[in-house]
Write a structure and sequence with these properties.
The protein is of the alpha/beta class. The protein has helices at 6-9, 20-23, 37-44, 54-58, 65-73, 77-85, 91-97, 101-104, 117-131, 154-165, 182-185, 195-207, 223-229, 258-270, 292-304, 340-348, 418-422, 450-453, 458-477, and strands at residues 146-150, 169-173, 210-212, 232-235, 241-242, 255-257, 284-288, 308-313, 359-361, 363-370, 376-383, 396-399, 402-405, 409-411, 445-447. α5 (65-73) packs across α9, α6 (77-85) packs across α9 (117-131) and α15 (292-304) crosses α16 (340-348). It is globular and about 65 Å long. The model has no long low-confidence stretch (mean pLDDT 96). This is Glutamate synthase subunit beta.
């Protein structure tokens, strides 16, 4: 450790955000440009270089966090980049999008604010691109074997890059018109500018990965035909089957799924549209669902100029400190966290009816009512207890011209016909079934990421992409591989 007393003398300091009033007027990332590097060396000094670093265990990628913290504190950016990229294909994505379970597992977090691991990771990744430490790494020779990867989210891209670098000829099939999956059209520009994604795709092209966009396997290309073309197939389509809200009034106009709303705003940022057909401008918006997707809808609606935005969370408002009985260290605790979008809503008073920032906690939707034209105008809700049972006397209504459903996802989309076309077996909860080697019931077909694991975090998605690449490489090479496999298909986050 560069500074043995760093964790004692240096307080936690995070990458500062631009003022809310400023950043909601554009779609750029919320942080102050250039403000991270001046503080990150001292923040890396806070790492205690633990003998048993639980941040390793908390991160499914197995990131070598104490090692690259020490290298950053010494300003050895090239070595830090090498250690970071040894376990993570896309640290600039995780450094911006991951909720940082590694910080929950930081030993310092037992009784102090954790090391800003996520910020250090982002600084290393950005510095690596700036200094040219991440050139394309094409293979020295080709294996003569071919692999199709279906889906270009973080799992598909990680699997494709690993397999390409191992010498296989890889083609990535994406049903949308651009590569990136949820990172392209689900994640708002203010959370991660798409230039980071484009840069990685360009790197992968230079390494030899092929990309086939606007191709829905099962619809535009028969699934059986794809299987016949390639020596192996990786299904990494994600969990895109959204959950529904089964209440009266769901059929009213103006009620939309989050993933109907967010892609349109992203297409405006891409220059495809002058304005979103579902723009929240001037509307009273209610978001049903308290997770990250709901927060993405919140930040988007605020930027579009909504008259008001309220987010409903069925859970009670969490506290600011870890409950050591229910969620002991080093598990990831449920705490009251203020995302950039919630901070904006709070500072701009975008949700006058909310309990805190833009959220109404312990709130369950009863029904939606509309006007004579069949358009939603009100959302009726009730307070609930810890068992989600309605509390008498807590019914109320919110004005709602636009209702966005952000209730999560249940498994892979079945509409394209990919699952049926390949004859894939499904697990009881609707995800693709696989064995301990990531293999499905169809020979030569493997499944990874949210399509098989279920809805999860980006670090799990990348870890699964790396692990399934090792499984495919082993299958193609006859039983051996040099590719790392950080997780198994049945591994799960640390819980009590």
């Amino acid at each position: 450790m560069a500074d043995p007393k760093g964790f004692l003398t240096t307080p936690r300091e995070e990458w500062p955000r631009r003022p809310a009033e400023e950043r909601v007027r554009d779609w750029h990332e919320v942080h102050v440009p250039g403000a991270l590097l001046p503080i990150i060396g001292a923040q890396a000094d806070r790492c205690m270089d633990c003998g048993v670093p639980f941040c390793h265990e908390a991160c499914p990628l197995g990131n070598l966090i104490p090692e690259w913290n020490d290298l950053v504190s010494r300003a050895d950016w090239r070595a830090a980049s090498e250690r970071l990229h040894a376990t993570n294909n896309f640290p600039e994505f995780t450094g911006r999008l991951c909720p940082a379970p590694c910080e929950a597992g930081c030993v310092l977090a037992i009784n102090q604010p954790a090391v800003t691991i996520k910020n250090v990771e982002c600084a290393i990744a950005d510095k690596a691109w700036e200094e040219g430490f991440t050139p394309p790494r094409p293979p020295d020779r080709l294996s003569g074997r071919t692999v199709a990867v279906v889906g270009s989210g973080p799992t598909g891209l990680a699997a494709a890059q690993q397999l390409t670098r191992a010498g296989h000829t890889v083609a990535v099939y994406e049903r949308d018109d651009r590569i990136g999956g949820l990172m392209r059209y689900g994640i708002p520009e203010f959370k991660m500018e798409k230039r980071h994604l484009e840069r990685r795709v360009d790197q992968m092209r230079a390494e030899g990965t092929k990309f086939r966009t606007s191709t829905a396997v099962g619809r535009d290309l028969a699934a059986g035909e794809l299987r016949a073309r390639y020596d192996a197939v990786v299904i990494a389509t994600g969990a895109t089957a959204w959950r529904e809200l089964a209440v009266p009034g769901r059929e009213l106009a103006g009620v939309h799924q989050a993933m109907e709303y967010l892609p349109l705003a992203n297409r405006v940022c891409e220059g495809d549209l002058e304005g979103s057909p579902l723009s929240a401008a001037g509307l009273h918006v209610v978001i049903v669902g308290g997770g990250d997707t709901g927060a993405d809808c919140l930040g988007t609606a605020v930027r579009e100029g909504a008259a008001s935005v309220t987010q409903l969370d069925i859970y009670a408002q969490p506290g600011g400190d870890r409950d050591e009985e229910a969620e002991p260290w080093p598990t990831y605790p449920r705490l009251y966290r203020l995302s950039a979008a919630h901070e904006e809503a709070r500072d701009l008073r975008s949700a006058p009816a909310a309990d805190a920032d833009a959220r109404l906690f312990a709130a369950s939707t009863l029904r939606l009512t509309g006007d004579s034209q069949g358009h939603v105008r009100s959302l009726h809700l009730v307070g609930v207890d810890a068992g989600r049972r309605p509390l008498p006397g807590t019914e109320r209504s919110l004005r709602a011209d636009l209702v966005l459903l952000a209730l999560g996802f249940s498994g892979p989309d079945r509409e394209d016909g990919l699952v049926e076309g390949l004859g894939l077996q499904l697990a009881p909860r609707g995800t693709i079934a696989r064995d301990r080697g990531f293999a499905t019931n169809v020979p030569g077909v493997f499944a990874a990421g949210d399509a098989a694991r279920g809805q999860s975090l980006i670090v799990w998605a990348i870890a699964e992409g790396r692990a399934v690449a090792a499984a495919v490489d082993r299958h193609l090479s006859g039983g051996s591989t040099r590719l790392p496999a950080p997780v198994g298909p049945y591994d799960r986050p640390m819980t009590v």
